[in-house]
Amino acid sequence: MINLASKETCTGCTACVNVCVYNAIEIVQDCNGFLYPIINENECVGCGLCEKRCPVLSPLSFDNAITPRAFALWSVPDRTVSSSGGAFSAFARKILDNGGIVFGAAFDEKLRCHHIKVDKLEELPPLRGSKYVQSELDGVFLEVKDCLKNGQQVLFTGTPCQIAGLYAYLHKDYDNLLTLDLACHGTPSNAVFQSYLSKLRTLKKCKISSFEFRRRNGWGYSPSISDRGKLIPIFDIENLYMCAFEKAALFRQSCYICPFAKLPRVGDCSIADFWGIGRHGKPFKHNVLRGVSLGTFIKYYKISQLIHTQSIAN
Q1: Which of 68, 73, 228, 251 is the most buried (most CB within 10 A)?
Q2: What pTM does this model have?
Q3: 3-state secondary structure of 118
């Protein structure tokens, strides 16, 4: 009898779905809009591979002896178009310059969040910016594996549980894979976000062509919508989604007991906003109003040439 991770612990990483060669696992949406794997008993042969590749049921092992180094990061050409210091864009630029592939979260035309791949710099903008909703993976792990087997450099960015799922699915190390995990606060569902957008359209009496959770020219919370190119800020009761997000009221059940919100980190590098930089440790003299990213990583040799850095920890 195959037992997948419980609803309380399943992160929705899709490793089990992708690893099943019998297509015996499907993804279904619960009443809160979160996606969970369900086994089709008529197709399942009981091989147990889904259990073995689940990063919750079969946790990954990491080298606890290596202490990550922390850096202040910013990308000069991307600092004014990103939610923080533009660290993600710096990594992505280097990979794309080398002819590689970048995977990250983007909104589709219906403002539903999915992971997509890009192979050109001009395709990168949709992947930039904060997205406080769980990105759906939609078979992306299969695409990542194909790119890696073809010898292409791959950058995969996502929440720690998504990266853990990717590693579990791949089940081997690839020198041409670089992973960035986000300092994740928790993930609401796409369905809840869509419901919020529907209410917001009625309240604002407008169409919503895009949604910005954060500023794109530095850091700071300034949620806004775009109606045919016109930027409309969101305040007070209109900003109820972000208020609930900040109070951790919308998250997937597994987020409240997340096994990846700790050291050692899952990805090659962890990126976040560097809130409060300069208040502790070494002084920081650069213009923080434009945004500064925090990066903690072990494989420094992979990224030392990508972005300007100022060490804050040794």
Answers
A1: 73
A2: 0.91
A3: strand
Angle of helix 160-170 versus helix 140-149 axis, rounded to 10: 50
Number of H helices, E strands in the chain: 8, 13
How many Å apart are CA 311 and CA 292, to the nearest integer?
13
Q: Are 55 and 167 in contact (CB under 8 A)?
A: yes
**Which residues lie across from 104 on neighbouring strands?**
116
Structure tokens at 90: 């710096």
**Would you state the torsion angle of the CA atoms of residues 217, 219, 220, 226, taken in this order, to the nearest 10 degrees?**
30
Structure-block tokens of residue 211: 């949604």
Q: What is the DSSP string of the chain?
A: ---PPPTTT-----HHHHH-TT--EEEEE-TTS-EEEEE-TTT-----HHHHT-TTTS-----TTPPPEEEEEE-TTTTTSSSSS-HHHHHHHHHHHTT-EEEEEEE-TT--EEEEEE-SGGG-GGG-S---SPPB-TTHHHHHHHHHHTT--EEEEE-HHHHHHHHHHH-S--TTEEEEEE-------HHHHHHHHHHHHHHHTS--SEEESS-SSSSS---EEEETTEEEE--GGGGHHHHHHHTT-S--GGGGG-TTSSSSPSSSEEEEE-TTTTSSSS---S-GGG--EEEEES-HHHHTTTSEEEE---
